[in-house]
Amino acid sequence: MNPIKHVAIIMDGNGRWGIKKKKSRNYGHKAGLKTVEKIIKISLKKKIPYLTLFAFSTENWKRPQEEINFLLKLLENFLKNKLEDLVKQNIKLKIIGNRSKFPNNIKKIINYSEEKTKNSNRLQINLALNYGSKSEIVDTIKKLIKNKKNITQKVISHNLYTSNMPDPDILIRTGNTKRLSNFLLWQLAYSEIFFEKKLWPDFNENDYSLILNKFKNIKRNFGKI
What we know:
The protein is of the alpha/beta class. It has seven helices and six strands; from the N terminus they run βααβαβαβααββα.
């Protein structure tokens, strides 16, 4: 039976869900937060050490400014309202991605949230913000060249945003879209991938548990027979 150390999720379909409900895309983004809380709860119950959530990509800046502003405000309010809960539940928060482009209020709250939870060790949530895997890999290699490091697979892995944590065992993408969208391309080399038809706000605890249970029984060869 395969142990599960790290689950990564592309939370796709919020905007489409909002439109489907004859509301706005922002209505869908707000509803998606409830699913995030459900998945965190199950991850804690299943004693999964790492959970990585793709929240905002480097390409998402191309969206309408109104939607971007709403997403950033949603993030800010979530961290302000849920930070104490994260601390109480012994959950560590880590931001992966380039935070330089965010406004100062967002930088301040994510930096504070990381500092406040840095000693927690029950579950680490990696929140991918302004994240793009190709940029991550290029920046890492540039850094290694600048520091005159010997470039090997192991050295690259240890200098990515996800250094000091296992690569994802599982990638889940909701929203009935079958692509990786520039997410953890290096780290997902041997991950088991599950594409779900449901839009993210409709994804529930049972869906998540079924995937976790299915993974445990998959025969994983890693190139061997």
